[in-house]
Fold this sequence. Notes:
This protein is α+β, with helices and mostly antiparallel strands. It is built from 9 helices and 8 strands. It folds into 2 domains: 5-138, Sandwich (Jelly Rolls), CATH 2.60.120; 140-192, no CATH class.
Amino acid sequence: MYIHSMYDGIKNSLVKFGALSETQAAEITNRLGHLRFARGQFLIREGQVCQHFYFINSGSFRQHTITDSGDEITLNLWAENEWMFEHKSFISQQASISNIEACSDSEVFSLSVWDFHELVKASDLFFRLGKIFEQAIQPNEYQQNRLSPEEKYELLLRNKPRIIQLFPLKHIASYLGMTPETLSRVRKKIIS
């Protein structure tokens, strides 16, 4: 099966959930939007409604929010070949309470919720595609207090090792629900 190399990453993420025929691949790629973001540019801003799933073809993104006290909290970090969207806004079709920001020059493909529903009607394979999107929005285990700081960092190393190289320490620490100082101590302890 051949799909233009620009779509290889998205194709590989879809193949995990079943064989993808040439026709099905074309059904998806024909519906995709193609967007580029400069570092610091927002994909979703607080107050906007999220109406698309996004696949990161290249680059990295961070979902964050500002607390009432003015602190910035990182809710999610995504890298190349991952799906992302603002879950609460997407499901409710209400204004987002967080931002999704490009952390590097990035390229994404977008699939609207309406196109997704049309694809689901066409084939069971596209229904399984929903499982991929569910993975993109798994609860942030790292911010749950049931794990020690060491366990959180080790889980991150196992599940999302690229994050360590792509994001500043302060964003990784916030994502893990700890201070940058605690993260530094944990990293030193694990490395030695």
